[in-house]
Specification:
Radius of gyration: 26 Å
Number of strands: 2
Structural class: mainly alpha
Number of helices: 11
Helix content: over 70%
Strand content: under 5%
Order of helices and strands: HHEHHHEHHHHHH
Number of domains: 2
């Protein structure tokens, strides 16, 4: 394809992705009220269960409208993740062989549930994170939380969990591309465990060990699953290379028939 054709293809893919995000945002608008109630439930629980004074505050005239737009768009991105991930794959497909296309499609099929699973786990961790962090409030003080600050906290938590759960897909993709070997992952498992725990300590909002474990535990499990898949793929690649070498060696000493030499 010429450069202009590639640009047109990219424009069409971006347009379809934008439509998916817009439709997801519309669904986000419809579900905004129950979603907002679910998001602020950890704050209301502080009043009802913990006996503390906490509330979500809007510091401007249009702050509530801005919050509605941001939550709706964020929901749209999550709901439309299969669409824009597929469009990204479809844009790359024309440059791939048939086998590589199937592999790329499997990456997309694995990435979507892992990303959504990470977001869902963050949703489950959110109440505990809010409770633990607000426990540091001095006695006699109140928690008047700005809506924009709270939304930034929630989205950062969910994106951190969602992106972290894509670790096995990235590692296995590098292995399939021949960039990373399974043996290299086995040798570096100690530093990987340390880096995962460090990332979990920084990304998890809770100050307690459980919040870190909620993120580090699944990430480590997915990492070792990726290691197993990479080792299996390396063995399959070695068997394929050995078979190809044996076939080449078996036919290397066979004389070329005269009829074929005449055709040449």
């Amino acid at each position: 394809m010429a450069l202009m054709d590639h640009l047109k293809e990219l424009r069409n893919r971006l347009f379809k992705s934008a439509i998916g995000v817009i439709l997801g945002t519309v669904v986000g608008f419809i579900l905004y009220q129950p979603m907002l109630a679910a998001l602020i439930k950890p704050i209301t629980d502080l009043n009802q269960k913990e006996g503390r004074l906490a509330s979500l505050n809007f510091d401007g005239v249009a702050s509530s409208f801005d919050l509605m737009i941001q939550i709706s768009v964020f929901m749209g991105l999550i709901l439309a993740s299969p669409v824009w991930l597929y469009q990204l794959w479809a844009f790359i497909v024309p440059g791939l062989h048939k086998k590589e296309r199937r592999m790329a499609l499997s990456f997309v099929a694995a990435a979507v549930p892992l990303f959504v699973g990470g977001v869902f786990l963050a949703w489950m961790v959110l109440p505990n994170a809010v409770r633990v962090l607000t426990d540091f409030t001095p006695a006699g003080a109140s928690n008047f939380i700005t809506a924009q600050v709270y939304l930034s906290f929630v989205t950062r938590l969910m994106l951190a969990f969602g992106i972290a759960f894509l670790l096995p897909v990235v590692l296995f993709g590098l292995n399939v591309a021949g960039i990373l070997k399974g043996a290299q992952l086995v040798k570096s498992w100690r530093i990987t465990v340390f880096l995962v725990c460090l990332f979990a300590a920084m990304a998890a909002p809770g100050a307690d060990a459980m919040s870190m474990f909620y993120l580090a535990g699944p990430m480590l499990a997915l990492f070792f699953l990726a290691v197993v898949l990479c080792l299996m793929n390396d063995k399959r690649r070695e068997r394929r290379a050995a078979k190809r070498a044996a076939e080449t060696e078996a036919t290397a000493d066979v004389a070329t028939p005269g009829s074929e030499l005449k055709n040449l």
